[in-house]
Amino acid sequence: MKVAVMGAGAVGGYFGGVLARFGEDVSLIEMGEHLDAIKRGGLRLSTNWGDFTVNPPATSDPAEVGPVDLILYTVKTYSSDVVLPLIRPMVGPRATILTVQNGVTSYSRIASVYGPERVLPGAAYIETGRPEPGRIRQTGSTARIEFGEIDGRITPRVREVERLFSKEGIQVRVSTDIESALWTKLVAVGAIGTVMAVTRASLPEVFAAAEGERTIRTVMEEIVAVGTAKGVRLAPDVVEGHMASAKAEMEAYQASLQQDLEAGRPLEIDDILGAAVR
Predict the structure, then answer these.
(1) In this predicted model, what pLDDT tens digit does every residue of 107-147 receive, in sequence order?
(2) Nearest-5° Cα angle at 99, 237 to 66
(3) Domains of the chain listed by start with CATH number
(4) What is the 3-state secondary structure (H, E, C) of the chain?
(5) pLDDT, tens digit, 9 for 90 and up, residues 143-161
(6) Which among 40, 57, 75, 209 is least surrounded, fewest beta carbons within 10 Å?
(7) Side-chain half-sphere of 195: how many Cα atoms within 13 Å?
């Protein structure tokens, strides 16, 4: 399977790097200093499963890659209006676009451009960052990718993608209710990431504060209420499950909203919380 990673930053770079480590046919699409560093010295990864460097083809031009079988779409949500037309040269006859963007609207946005039959919605659960150009640092014991057909069917392409990602350093989960899976992630990201960004505090600092845990829990409960009102099936213990996971790995927890805020980059807040607010 020929794979292209559109946006080889912290998330895309991690999954693309692991695939390249195990010999998969992967090309990275990036730009700027990060791309320059990858071309010079490879993509360096520090992970819970060891440190390694890979040297997959890397470019800023999707046309150089050409048609592929799978596009792992990991660009920031606020870039999609610009980026989506650019991937067209890679959308081959069998191409699937696997999106693991934050929020719950990525599937419909991509489907409106390339058709619903092309899109496989998914979510990534991973604590990762890009401490410097050309380097990805993953922390914690979780590096999970979850995906599924929008109608819940277990199709041949789902099994093919599942086999592709079944590697050391990646936990794979096939979902038969991907809408529920996306909202389940939104409950965590929309609450924890937002509170960390607003307070400019680490997760241990948030939990140590008098109102920290209560604030996170309240936001989670509000997102659950909105999702439930929309007819999304969320587990009764979804809030408690997220709270327990956050406490268990709070030293490793990295919030992309906070990372972007501190780096002076645009924020995905409208796509992360916007769906719930609207």
Answers:
(1) 999 999 999 999 999 999 998 999 999 999 999 899 999 99
(2) 165
(3) 2-175 (3.40.50.720), 180-277 (1.10.1040.10)
(4) CEEEEECCCHHHHHHHHHHHHCCCEEEEECCHHHHHHHHHHCEEEEECCEEEEECCCEECCHHHHCCEEEEEECCCHHHHHHHHHHHHHHEEEEEEEEECCCCCCHHHHHHHHHCHHHEEEEEEEEEEEEEECCEEEEEEEEEEEEECCCCCCCCHHHHHHHHHHCCCCCEEEECCCHHHHHHHHHHHHHHHHHHHHHHCCCHHHHHHCCCHHHHHHHHHHHHHHHHHHCCCCCCCCHHHHHHHHHHHCCCCCCCHHHHHHHHCCCCCHHHHCHHHHC
(5) 999 999 999 999 999 999 9
(6) 40
(7) 24
Q: What is the mean pLDDT of residues 190-217?
A: 91
CA distance 149 to 132: 35
Q: What's the average model confidence in pLDDT over 204-215?
A: 92
Which among 86, 91, 67, 90 has a CA at the least distance from the CA of 75?
A: 86
